Amino acid sequence: MTEQSVLSPSTGKTSAPTQLMLIGGKWVEAVEGDWREIVSPGHRGKVLARVPRGTGADVDLAVSAARAAFPAWRDQHFTARQRVLLKIADAIEARAEELAQVTAVDTGNALRTQARPEVATLVDLFRYFGGVAGEVKGTTLPAGAAQLQYTRQEPLGVVGAILPWNSPLMIAGFKVPAALAAGNTIVLKAAEDAPLSILLMAEVCEEFLPPGVLNVVTGTGREAGAALVDHPGVDKVSFTGSTEVGRGIAGRAGERLAHVSLELGGKNPSIVFPGAVTDELIDGLVLSSRVTRQGQSCTAGSRLYLHRDVHDEVLARLADRLGALKVGDPLDESNDIGAIINQSQYDSIRDYLEDGLANMRVELGGLPPTTGPLAEGLFHVPTLFSGGDNSFRLAREEIFGPVVVAIPWTDVDDVVRMANDSAYGLAAYVWSQDIDQAISTAHRLEAGWVQVNQGGGQVVGQSYGGYKQSGIGREVSLEGMIAGFTQTKQINVCLGQRATTTPPATTKTGA
Ligand code: NAD
User: Fold this and answer.
1) What is the pLDDT of residue 16?
2) What is the fold of 21-264+470-491?
C-alpha cells in the first residue's frame, strides 16, 4: 500500500507516506481526491501518513465490489474459506512485529503491554474462526419419510463493519474472520484517527482473498461511516464505538431494516470482597482497570467498589502499583502506558480530572505534566480517586482515560444495586476468595461479561457483548458468529409418491 514506513513520523506534509484504500482488490485514492493526515498520539503534531478521505462515492464502489465478490465467496465449500483464513493467520503472525509497531504509533497503545498482545489476539481470532468455519450448519427435522425438512445457515451478504480507534486490530478480529468464515463479504470503515494498522492488516489479507471480498475505506464517520450505514447494498452493519454514535446508527440501519449489531461503551464495576489483599488481587485490579491502554477500553473496570474492611489497604497498594507504571513513547519497550489518541479525548479526560480533583480525594495521579518529555505527547498519568459515591459524574460516565474511582461498601445487596445502577452493562469484575459468594454475585450483575478473580481481555471462543446501552449482539464466539453473520433458511421438500405418512394438517396451509 506504500513504499515508505510510517514508523518514523515526519514533521511536514511532504514527506509523510501516502497510504491508499483497498477497494475491489486495488489500492486506490478517494474518488474526490481528498486526504486526511494521521497524527501520532505519542509525538504531538507529527504526521505519520496521509490517507484518502473516502466519501459516499468510495463506499459505493466498495459495496459494489463486495456484492460482486459475494456469490463466489459464499458458494465455496467451507474448507476453502477455512484454508484462506488459516493462511491469513500465519501471514499476520509472520508480520506481527510490524503490525504491532504500526499499532503503537497509530493508536498510542504501548508496544509491549498492548500492541503486541492485540496482534496476537488477531492471529488467534483468524485461527479460531477459520477452525470453526464448518460449524456454520443447520438442522434436520425428523419429519417422516415423506418430507425432508432442514435448515441452512446462509451468510447475510455484504457486511459494513465500522471500527473505533482504541484497539483497531483486535476489534477487526472480532468481525472480519467471523464474517468471512460464514461466507459474507466486507466493507470495513477504519476509525479516522487510527486507520494505519487496519490498512496493513488488509494488505496481508489481500494476498489470499479474491478481489472485493475484503474492502477497506478510510474517512470520517460523518461521510464514509454514514454512507456505509445508509447504503442499500449493505445487508448488515456491525458497529463498535460509542453509545451515542451507535444509537444513531441503530436508528438509521433500522429505518431500512438492515441487520445491525452494536458493541458500545461501558462503565464497568469491579467489586472487591473482604479477605486477604494479595499481590494477585492488586495485579488483577491493575489489569482490569486497563490503565495500560490509557483506560481507553470499553471493558475498563473503572468503578472500583471496595469493601470497607479492605478499602484502605487495597487503595494504598493499588496506588503503589499504578504509580510504578511508566508512561511515555508507545514504541519504547520500557513503557507500560502509551498516549491518548487525540487532543479532544485528552481534553475530555482533563475535564473529568478537574471535576475529580475538586470533589474527591486523589490517591494517585491528577493533571498531566506540563513540562518534560510527557508534555511532548498526549500523555495522561494513572489517577485513582476515592471519597466519592455512586452519584458522582466520574462514577457514572465513561471517561475513557486512565482514571479509577473507588467507592466503599459494606452490604452485598447494596454493592450489587450500585453496580447495576448504570445505563451501561458491558463488563464486570468480582474479586472474592469465597467462590460461592463470587459466583452468586456474578449472576446478579447486569453485564454481558463478568470475570471472577481475573481481569484480562477477551479470549477466543467466549461470548462478548453488552447488556442495556452497551450493545446488541454478541461477538468473539461461534454462537455469536452464527447469530450475527448468518440467517436461517428453512427448506421443506415433499419426497413424492413413495410417501408412507402424510404431514400434519396444520402444515398444509401457510401462516
Ligand atoms: P465513535 O463512536 O466516535 O466512532 C466509532 C466509529 O464510528 C469510527 O469509525 C467513526 O468514524 C464512526 N462514526 C462516527 N460517526 C458516525 C456516523 N454518524 N455514522 C457512521 N459511522 C460513524 O467511537 P470512538 O471514539 O472511535 O471509540 C470510543 C468508543 O467506542 C467508546 O465509547 C468505547 O467504549 C467504545 N468501544 C466499545 C467497544 C465494545 O466492544 N463494546 C470496543 C471499543 C470501543
Assistant:
1) 81
2) Aldehyde Dehydrogenase; Chain A, domain 1 (3.40.605)
